[in-house]
Design a protein that fits this description.
Elements: E1 2-6, H1 8-24, E2 31-36, H2 40-53, E3 61-71, E4 77-84, E5 97-104, H3 108-118, E6 127-137, E7 150-157, E8 164-168, H4 178-186, H5 192-201
Parallel strand pairs: 1-8, 2-3, 2-5, 5-6, 6-7
Antiparallel strand pairs: 3-4
Helix pairs in contact: 1-2, 4-5
């Protein structure tokens, strides 16, 4: 497995540039939905950017959705949506919607959420999908209908490539070994050794 540690400030800076690109394209969202929890950090940055550039217009509504992907006994992916802070039922024709997540990997969750939004009558041109990392498997048998419109980084991969794990240091702690904690956390702040020792104690 290839593992990359992505610092929060790199995600912030990349996301600011992404938000600026969206703005320059003329897509000004009325509603930003973030997929929790991965999309929250990016969503905060994008929301702040549009708060500044739209200070004389009506504010962008910032909302979240909790959706989970799991595999059932027949090994098919299932998506459960546990709640929206701004229900899609409140969307109106003409609203421009930005759906944000940290990574597009299998794409199943984003596609499920996009379908729910489009079912409210929002045209595809008024729904944009933005992610930090876009994993595009060029030799995948069939591509999902909804692919990201905006991304910070695109990884063109084969389904046969070694797995690539992007560890977002803005929020992730799962899956860290002692050496990874030492190199990426304790080296910068030794006090975190006491704070995070519970990670290995719980294994």
């Amino acid at each position: 497995m290839i593992k990359e540690f992505l610092p929060y400030d790199a995600v912030r800076n990349n996301t600011l540039k992404l938000a600026h690109r969206i703005y320059k394209d003329g897509f000004i969202p009325d509603v930003i939905y973030v997929s929790l929890r991965g999309g929250a950090y990016m969503g905060n940055v994008i929301s702040e950017y549009f708060k500044v550039v739209r200070k004389d217009a009506h504010p962008v509504y910032y909302a979240a959705v909790v959706a989970r992907s799991y595999t059932d006994v027949r090994t098919s992916d299932k998506i459960t949506v546990e709640g929206w802070t701004y229900a899609p039922e409140y969307l109106r024709i003409g609203d421009k919607v930005l759906l944000v997540d940290d990574i597009f990997d299998s794409g199943n969750t984003i596609n499920h959420l996009a379908e729910i939004i489009l079912e409210r009558g929002i045209p595809r041109n008024d729904l944009k999908i933005a992610v930090h990392d876009y994993k595009y498997f060029y030799d995948k048998g069939e591509q999902l209908p909804f692919q990201p419109d905006y991304w910070c980084r695109k990884h063109e991969l084969s389904v046969n490539d070694e797995d690539r794990w992007i560890h977002y240091m803005s929020h992730e702690l799962v899956g860290l070994g002692e050496a990874e904690l030492e190199n990426n956390y304790y080296a910068q702040d030794p006090e975190l050794r006491e704070v995070l020792k519970v990670i290995n104690e719980k294994k």
